[in-house]
Write a structure and sequence with these properties.
284 residues; alpha+beta; Fumarylacetoacetate hydrolase, domain 2; 12-stranded mixed sheet; 19 strands; globular
Amino acid sequence: MRLARFHTADAPTRVGRVDGDRITDLSGVPGIGTSLRAILPRLADLRPAIEAAGGPALALADVTLDAPIDNPQKYLAIGMNYRAHAEEARAAGIPVPVNQMWFNKQVSCIAGPYDDIVRPVVSEQLDYEIELGVVIGSRCRNVSAADARSVVAGYLVANDVSVRDWLSTRSPTFTLGKSFDTHGPIGPWLTTDDEIADPHGLRMRLTVNGDERQNWTTDDMIHNIWAQIAELTTVMTLEPGDILATGTPAGIGAPTRTWLRPGDVVRAEIESLGAIENRVTADG
């Protein structure tokens, strides 16, 4: 099941079910409301009504898709979690962590799947990172790796946009360089966990102006999703709607200093999950 948040020129944001190239408005389903995050803890109970809903169906081309998860409490991302990317970093003289290395992307950075990415005036070192996003479905703490899949609502495509000079020199932590407004496009919808046989076997591909920059599969993760959830819930309670960005493969712009420029179009696509596409614009 694919669930999205969308709006049209004459109506505000609501939740819809995506089927092929159409989206069914779920406004008439009792208990749905306008927040996808709010229904995640009740998704199993609501599922029969969602699947049976026959409300107005619109062409995806005629709507604007919003970020599927509204107002998450946390957006957490793991660094250097792909073997090839870690080697890429090591070759560039960047230390590679032995343990899981987590950082925050402030939730104010989140943008829709087709919104613009704004290059800030304070930097020219704007980079891309395609990542598999995991969305938590139930409140959880101290979850074992063996049970971790039970707390996952589903998956989405993420681009962990990064301002590299703020990462390396301006701030001693990753938070500021990872949290500029618009630098967290996600989407295009939430694909529920039952639709994905193995999230560690998905092809992911990123292009800039049609030129392929990243093409890898999620089986190259050093720490798999279940180990990530176990690690995080040892420290903190995860809440429904929390987003985990699970790492990026080799091919980012930093090693060759190939930075994003205004006018560039970045497309990030993950097998079975869809694609997001964002144009880079200049701030102001």
